[in-house]
Description:
Chain A is of the alpha/beta class. Chain A has helices spanning about 1-10, 10-35, 85-90, 95-100, 140, 160-170, 180-185, 250-270, 275-295, 300-310, 320-330, 350-375, 445-455; strands at about 65-70, 125, 130-135, 145-155, 195-205, 230, 335-340, 380-385, 390, 405-410, 410-420, 425, 430, 435-440, 440-445, 465, 470. In chain A, helix 8 packs antiparallel against helix 9. Chain A is elongated, with a radius of gyration of 30 Å. The relative contact order of chain A is 0.20. Chain B is built from 20 helices and seven strands. Chain B has helices at about 5-25, 35-40, 45, 50-65, 70-95, 100-125, 130-155, 155-160, 175-190, 210-215, 230-235, 255-265, 285-290, 310-315, 345, 370-375, 390-395, 420-425, 440-450, 460-470; strands spanning about 320-325, 330-335, 355-360, 380-385, 405-410, 430, 455. In chain B, strand 6 (about 430), helix 19 (about 440-450) and strand 7 (about 455) form a beta-alpha-beta unit. Chain B is about 45% helix and about 5% strand. In chain B, strands 1-2-3-4-5-6-7 form a seven-stranded mixed β-sheet. Helix content of chain C is about 45%, strand content about 5%. By secondary structure, chain C is mainly α. In chain C, the strands form three sheets. A two-stranded antiparallel ribbon of chain C has the order 1-2. A two-stranded antiparallel ribbon of chain C has the order 3-4. Chain C is built from 33 helices and six strands. Chains A and C meet through helix 2, helix 8 and helix 9 of A and helix 1, strand 5, helix 28, helix 31 and helix 32 of C.
Amino acid sequence: MKKDTSEQENPLKVNRRHFFSQLSVGIGSLALGSLLIPDLFKSSAQTLATNPLGIPHFAPKAKRIIYLFQAGAPSQLETFDYKPTLIKRMGEDLPDSIRNGQRLTGMTSGQESFPLMPSAAKFRQYGNSGAWISDFFPHIGKIADDICIIRSMHTEAINHDPAITFFQTGSQQSGRPSMGSWMSYGLGSENKNLPSFVVLTSRGKGNSQGLYSKLWSSGFLDSKHQGVLLRAGKNPVLYLNDPEGISRSDKRHLLDQVSSLNKLHHVETGDDEIESRIAQYEMAYRMQMSVPDVMDISKESEATIKLYGEDCQVPGTYAANCLQARRLAENGVRFIQLYHQGWDQHGNLPNEMAGQAKDVDKASAALVLDLKQRGMLEDTLVIWGGEFGRSNYCQGKFDPKNYGRDHHPRAFSIWMAGGGIKPGITYGETDEFGYNIIKNPVHINDFHATLMHSMGLDHEQLTYKYQGRRFRLTDVAGNVVKDLLT
Amino acid sequence: MTATSKKRWVDYLILGLTVFLVFCLLFEKHIHPPTIVLWLGKWHPVVLHFPIVLVIVTVIWHLTGKKVPYLLLAASCVLALTTAITGFLLGLENGTKGELLFWHQWLGVAVAVGLVIWYWLSSSKNNNPIITKGIGLILLVLIGFTGHYGGMITHGEDFLALPNSRRPEKIPANPLIYQHIVGRILDDKCISCHNPNKSKGELLMTNLRHVLKGGESGNTVIPGVPEESELIRRLHLPLEDEEHMPPEGETPLSYSEIEILERWIALGATDSLRLQDLDQNDPLAVLINEMMEPDPIEKWNALTVLADSTLERLSSDYVTITRLANTTNALRVAMYKPPVYDPKTLMDLKPISENIVELDLSGLPIGAEEMALVSGFSNLEWLEIDRTPVTDTDIDTLKTLSKLQLLKIFDTKIGDKSIALLNNWEDLQQLYIWQTNISEEALNLLKEERSDLRISTGIDESLRSEFAALDSIVEPEEK
Amino acid sequence: MKQKAILIAVLLLLTAVIYAVISGVFDFSKDTYTEQPLPEVVDYNFDIKPILSDNCYTCHGPDANKRKAGLRLDIEEMAFAELKENPGRHAIVTGKPNQSVLYERITTEDQSQIMPPKDSKLSLSSYEKRLIKKWIQQGAKFEKHWAFIPPQKTEPPQTNIVDWVQNEIDAFVLKKLEDNSLKPSNKADKETLIRRIALDLTGLPPSLEQMQAFASDNSDLALSKAIDTFLASPAYGERMTQIWLDISRYADSHGYQDDSYRTMWPWRDWVIHAFNKNMPYDEFLTWQLAGDLLPDATKEQILATGFNRNHPITQEGGVIQEEYLSNYVVDRTNTLGKGILGITLECAKCHDHKYDPISQEEYYGVYAFFNNVNEKGLQMDAVQAANQKYFADHPYLTITDEETDGVLSFINKKKGESVNVMIMNDSTPRQTFLLNRGNYDEPTDSVDTKTPSSIYPFSEDLPKNRLGLASWVTDQNNPLTARVFVNRIWSMLFGNGLVETSEDFGVQGSLPTHPKLLDWLSRDFMENQWDIKYLLKKILLSATYQQSSEQNSELKRLDPNNRLLAKAPRFRMSGEMIRDYILATSGLLHQEIGGPSVKPYQPPGLWAETNAGGNRGVLTTYVEDEGEDLYRRSLYTFWKRTLPPPSMSIFDAPTRDFCEVRRQKTNTPLQALALQNDIQILEAARVLAQNIVASHSDEIPMVKEVFQKILARSPKPEEFELINTYYADTFKRYSESVEEAQKLVTLGNATVLDTDPVKTASLMLTAQVIYNLDETITKE
């Protein structure tokens, strides 16, 4: 009662109080509402596209690529391009009408004759597709219906360095970003705790050619897109391991120290670069766990080991790298680049080929089968091939048991599997000498365009402006080879 | 406490609720409430009954001329507001607003607001019963419709996912090559310049007769001989060529479009030809069939629009969220095994449930809790839960995933119990199911019933053993 | 009633505010083209040309083959000429935008007419369109590209603030700041300043003595004195050389394939020597381009021409030598363009330059200057070369004790040995041909030596050889050479050049932020006989340089990239500097100048994994050096092109496959790993700790001293607090497991002192913490 009377005495006061309470209620409920808007006090810059490139341009078929690069250039004539004519016309000179001006490397330009040389290995047909595959590769034969053989690849380069650089960067000269870097730049990483582009190398006994870090360099792109060399053994990534005497907890302790000091300094200088440095240290710390985790094959089943071959337990072998490749793919690495050296058979080809094939045949096939059973062939693209082909004529002494073949840019074979590529087809055709392409040529630019397409990228739109010019992986050429796509 | 002060508190409550409601509606797009708040929405179906009754009572009471008791009006007002708000929250849960939901929401709001106005009028000194009566009548009508729409929503979920009408009219099953295919291409790419108003190069492409008549250069289309047809020649010219068609700036024809035109001309450039008249291996037939497959992205057009900031917020060191293409709101979510696994990171994905189309949880220590969450991902097409400890009971909740197309569940504990579940997913096309407790018989049963389903039971043993045995070099057999 | 009104008003207002926040009204990153004010007078070079070149030149530019509709917009006459395709009309009509087809086509609604065409994926912003309109209204004046007009010295502008200005530079900078209503920052404190100067001039932290001397000296000349000491120290030459090595793509291997050993290091020693004796830049260039052609050239002058032989040379079996010989000449040509003239000559190799007025013929004109060397390409593969110690291709200069005792005393060569260095000569004059699409096997018309006339005409009285070229390059009226160098020095000090694209001053390059300043400095540089040390001192004495590098929120908003220089830059050091810094602060650095490149720590096996077999040349496996050679400055680290030192490439070092003038400054997890686990750094931390422990009794100052030694400043209280507790914790941790500590304190090859392992280990990790701070690897 008391209160009421007081109010009657002084209505003004009441009104004001009433008013203010009303106001506060109103504002209160507004505030309450705005609590439901998480982005409210973040700058709306964040709501702009995180991906300025607007990528993927369309729904991709492949989410990652495993590239089994056979460095040194395996001969198409002993792998996938069956040429009976060479048997019939063995020893005859390569008709000029066929060679028709093709320049030669210094190694055979001196040769006065170019005797045709057939394959030392027999060929047979496999699978429902009836693909012709040489006896060097019986296991790949078994996956004939899962792969797409292209017999009509061609390039301009006739020497290893420019040729392999061309394949990896789209240009014969050094300095352009490699394929993997373009993908990383375009699609970013799927797993933030691993690099998005990794490289694994192995070497066979065959005559080999060196590799160069420029093949996985990011060129003018930000160097975070650079390929990271994953190495055999205890220290897979450079500087990954802490020295003995520093435990995990010590490292944590040390990093906390570093970041609290860095934070202090950030307050002083106001330089946000410090914040991102802190973030990078955290990612490094996570990598120290995730990388060894991925590389550790101890949990792989006996069956898997048998599939890839016992070799796969020996770090640094091609088989081991294939198994790694699968594990990396499982863990969201975008581009997995393998190199197997030793395919440069200028001489002693039959024996060296046999050796090289022994290294890669089973493991490559196993990889495809393994991916397939895990349903990963749906969204993983596997590529197998070298930087160019080899001559259909003999280099050096003419001896069907022990001959050599020179470089040959005009026609060579590779195969691809999964990731939206038609399985069980053989594409393109060379003449009866296996020298020139007579059907469906695929240039390296087209090859790149097609890969990018299956990754959901338009090779004409993924550009980077450098030195006043918009660069592309496919430079100014390249068409998507539609016939290869599912 | 006295009447006045009590009344005042009610005033505040109503004011607060109203402001809150209005606010929510204003900022609907930006609001992402925490799950607990969303949960409040679940009460909408319960609450809504009170205001309906109360309002009707109030109005009738008022129309009969009696003075409406304060408490009655206040109560219905408060309840109407709460109903509207909870309703709003519930609405948030299923992102896309079908028109039903749309109308239901706004009518509901109208009711609430109407009551509020009534409430204020009645509490202010000079209130005119005529107006309030009017309001009352309107309210009755509104309530009717609101309820009606609400009913339709609850009794027919599928109304909600009304396909949006932006899609171009479909190509009929057995199209006329000219009218439905070639014509469409010409309309898209050529008509803009070759129409009666603007016949560039004196060429009209509005109908077959004109096309065959050709333009300046005549020979635009020579039935049977594409290689001599000006049209084809120009299409094939390099882009930078002055004569290339369409001219610079216009979107050029795609390879397949050009091929279609070529092949159509080769086949005589008639308008009578139908798809079925062609041999199904004829390149033209192949091309057209390709063309008739809808772009996968289109089916996702209806998904709620998500800001990239939202995706950023929800993704973490071990959870990656990416758009399947930059133009869609369909998402792929992949989680990688963190040192310490915490289900919460996944639970946070609830707000974007319906946008998740691909989900990869393989190798994670997940169980019932996660599966319950996943069962809410209504648009899921691709699910990877291989190498996880999930059991038959865990995944049973997934039966709601009607759109599932691919499932990886190899290397898990699931057994025959799940066969029924697998069998019931009609859209399921691929199943990876080796190394489970499912018995041979059960599997064969499934295989029989679902011939359409591609079941991968791993690498078959014979092949395995061959691999294990066979050395890479085949010994050349003796001649 | 009134209150209700207010109430509603307030609520509405609040809602409005929230709405505004959400819709990003307060977000300044959003596009503001429409409000953007147009300049008083539209400048062709700075406002219009960038638009045209970026959007139009591809089809309406210099390249005749790609030109559309016969329209060319980069040349005045042709831009005003009547249009072939619609007679009677003109692309540009002076003063009348609405009659100008150009304006019509960029503004039209008709999608088939709009320029740039849709499929070009280019488009003009409303601001750009308004600019073009205004430009046409103002008479559509064309000008030569700014960088091709010789720099002129203009009077430093008047500014409102006067007391801040220390020299001409500041006047230019301040004017720009005032135009943008910004204020310069305060002077950096002495500690920061001396560290900054030391790093900039020597690439090393200041020594304790230097710091004390500077700290105690309060005279106005203190700074000037300090600068002189640093400029005088031999480390200065090494610092400058480090940068020149990227430009001259120096390496110790041939690149390509087996990538075998080459001996170019004496040339590198010469560069150090040249910088240290402060050779004028024009002379520096002349010697490198054409030292051999100077009247009775000395061996030193001939040695300098090694610059042109630093390019990769293939050793791959079976290559076609003509193809590669052509590549080598191309490389020389491009290096001149990119490194010295700052233009993308290489774009004119296969076709006329698309943007800059350089014809393909002119490209091969420059090419012709470098085409007369009697090189044959390496005649041996790596294996033979290794066996026969054949580490230099013809022509080369043999350096024996005779030379090193005499004219070439600066070469740090072991007594008794002789070494071959590749150099230039003109002993085999070749006829140069224009190569169709740049293909060595498609020669067309013969070409005579010439330079791009639109840049600066090649005077008749100059000899038509490299010497002539050199004098053309270093002519006071050559518009590029001085600008490019001054700009490079600027970017070395400020992280960014006044022209950001220091490799491209052409039409497509970025425009200078302070054009008048750049011109003033360039002219001033030339007037002072191209004196590099003078130039450096000039800039270092400016208030602009001496500002503090602290960032404040307002600046961050208005000038996020600090292009207006309202503060000093703050950026990560290069990989080389970081390593040197750590060696120096730990006391491990071995200061010896020149000599064959050394092989410090590198993760084992790297070379072996990628080589083509152990027998393929001398660089198949990496064999670490021992003793002092592990601790030389990083510019002496052995550079194998196909696999550069990882600790450098991780920090954005280029491969040296070709001329590189600008390094990125990325921030990656791999860098974090390297700084934590590179033995070089762990060892440094250990040695630093050990020495301090050995020389100290009590712990507190130890921690302080570590901090001081590394960061060249004393810790702030809260910092001290942190590291001190860290030390204590670590100490506790390791006293419980001494053997762990033992492992740490024996890391690396440097001699291990007999100190208390626990103390040492804890202090070592404290040092490791500080070595991993952002501040440590940053120039502030």
